[in-house]
Amino acid sequence: QVQLVESGGGLVQAGGSLRLSCAASGRASSRYYMGWFRQAPGKEREFVAAIHRSGIITNYADSVKGRFTISRDNAKNTVYLQMNSLKPEDTAVYYCAAATTGWPTPLYEYKDWGQGTRVTVSS
Q1: What tens digit of pLDDT does each residue of 61-85 get?
Q2: Omega of the bond prior to 104 within 30 degrees of 0, cis?
């Protein structure tokens, strides 16, 4: 099991940028596949991006490709989500999650979740 704490959310104008961080604690956090998800009001949680435990392979939702970048620093047990060219439709609570098996990792394999950080993009 790994404990996850997100930070970096806030209010930003459309076109702006934010960087979210997800600090992981627990045993061997570097062996986890990590993902970012988001949930907007009244909508289901959706996949945003994921990164292989190697840190080399990444995967993105079509809606964020070219604007968001996921990365990880295993020495710091931290995963990042750099969000550029933000749009009002990116407004949501963003969650990071960890999985130990599968790539690409299906949603049901993500067993550990953070509490979320809120991102609001104003038009």
Answers
A1: 999 999 999 999 988 999 999 999 9
A2: yes
